Amino acid sequence: MAHVDRQAWDVVVVGAGGAGLRAAIEAREAGMRTAVICKSLFGKAHTVMAEGGIAASMGNANAHDNWQVHFRDTMRGGKFLNHWRMAELHAREAPDRVWELETWGALFDRTADGRISQRNFGGHEYPRLAHVGDRTGLELIRTLQQKIVALQQEDERELGAYDARLKVFQECTVTRILKEPGGPGAGSGKVAGAFCYERESGRFFVLEAPAVVLATGGIGKSFKVTSNSWEYTGDGHALALLAGAPLINMEFVQFHPTGMVWPPSVKGILVTESVRGDGGVLRNSDGKRFMFDYIPDVFKEKYAETEEEGDGWYEDPERHRRPPELLPRDEVARAINAEVKAGRGSPHGGVYLDVSTRMPAEVIERRLPSMHHQFKELADVDITVEPMEVGPTCHYVMGGVEVDPDTAAATGVPGLFAAGEVAGGMHGSNRLGGNSLSDLLVFGRRAGLHAAEYAASLDRRPAVDPLQIDAAEAEALRPFSAEGGQDAGEGRGEDAGRETGPAENPYTLHQELQQAMNDLVGIIRKESEMFEALKRLADLRVRARRAGVEGHRQYNPGWHLSLDLRNMLLVSECVARAALEREESRGGHTRDDHPAMDRGWRNINLVCEVAHPQGEARTADPALGQIRLSRRETPPIRRDLLELFEKDELAKYLTDEELSR
Ligand code: FAD
Q1: Where is the signal peptide (predicted)?
Q2: Is the pLDDT of residue 187 over 50?
């Protein structure tokens, strides 16, 4: 057995975005020695990119708002597939989490009378997004980081070391969750720690801990056109799967309607929904505001039928219905896709999003400073005088680790918790804008709290299995042993030379994966294309076994990507298999061959599990599917929550059996 450094902690949080930092603060405040580990620099997590705001029914902009209205909007947005308990906790607790941020130093934009300002977003009945211009994520991360530093200063005063009870391991990646051996199968055995490598030196180390919180964000880097940052390779999703925890809702991938489409180098970069929330309109190449043609039946009563009515809503929302540009994201993305397909798109394959004719230049520059800067710098477009060209971009994954709503505990693996984008259930089939930042805080706090309680409740720390450390090390070193690759200099992988054929370039494999997912499992899906996708994924899995790199373990991005490929291939297979199985269209899953929403699917979750237990996964034939899919009925929605809706509306969503109950 090679020597690998080990450190003992009570709680390990994987990820330093909003969910991870909030979890770490809670675990540390509960008295646990807490380690946070993140792939990027501290403060650089994907959360920092969040623009529009954080949804919480504080009622500052409209006194009618409350948690029940927020709950209703969230369930409607997710087409009732959301785990109702998560949606309830989220709606109830979000305001407290925002106020708490303020007490920790966050400086939100204000209303004229000095309260936290709230803006409109798609699918939210009232202006609900607390924001800091269009740089809300930056303020959120800054505030959480500041809180962490404050706690570390407290520890230094009390214990003489800043990192005595809260330490950040930045630019370090976790590749395996380690478990105490306990019977056959991946689902048995308690969490014992995490196997990690330092990106700069390539050094391996183990963080031993009875509780691990996954807060690793999303999967967007498996798609070619995406708003997501480089970190979004589905690591937490894959770590959970490989540890024996199931994922749910993986067929639901959100394509944000408005990403940049030009120039090619920036294709996919997000154009925040605040542009539409603040009055921006969508037009096709004929100059028509086409969204009026795309209001689905379930939303007909709530949206304006004419431009005059829609425009009136911005000034007088009590007497007007909202414009259809503010439909939930899945509806707007499909509409844009249809317009482009019908030949009414812009020159670069998008449509036009215009604020220049809707607001004075100085208002645009004040309310949307990042968008103004982004278009000027990247596309040489001045959004105060001309429209933007926009089109759908892969943005968010609704699917994720199946968790207990109250405790964030992952199903089937004691000691594993998940919060934020890596967790599934909260958003159902489609997330409303602004509901992620609030989700991170509500469930990040819960995950930290319950991980701490769990760790404290054990009378014995689960022991790390040395064989698992050896296996994790061999797996991580494999890219240096691929045929045509070079030896890393120390500790060659145990299965060196096993794969046949030339070494594969990880960047080529990644590009092919992204292209396949974009073309075959993208915004509009067909049975035949998903079969094709599964075939291509099988081929890529075989080739990925030969992903080879040259050079050393010291900062070697090709090596890091080779390791990330395992994760992207696993989650992509989950998405493709679940998308093939769900024969209906709902939220972030649109089937060309099953275009309608089917009430019969309302209470069905598709559950993905790894087909081979932890030890066997590496030796299993990669040409065969790695994922086992099953159906699970969702828990019935609590009666008092159902009573928040009109019966007629429920009849559009619930199954006959649920309605008769
Ligand atoms: P992240 O913030 O992504 O953090 C993930 C962390 O995990 C990172 O620190 C990463 O380094 C680490 N990590 C990943 N894998 C590993 C590994 N293997 N080992 C160690 N560490 C690892 N939502 C809203 O509600 N409102 C908005 O206005 C909004 N705007 C957005 C704008 C853009 C451009 C984008 C892309 C998204 C936006 N979203 C918004 C969505 C929201 O930002 C994300 O869903 C959210 O930030 C996810 O937070 P998280 O804490 O789950 O993960």
Answers
A1: none
A2: no
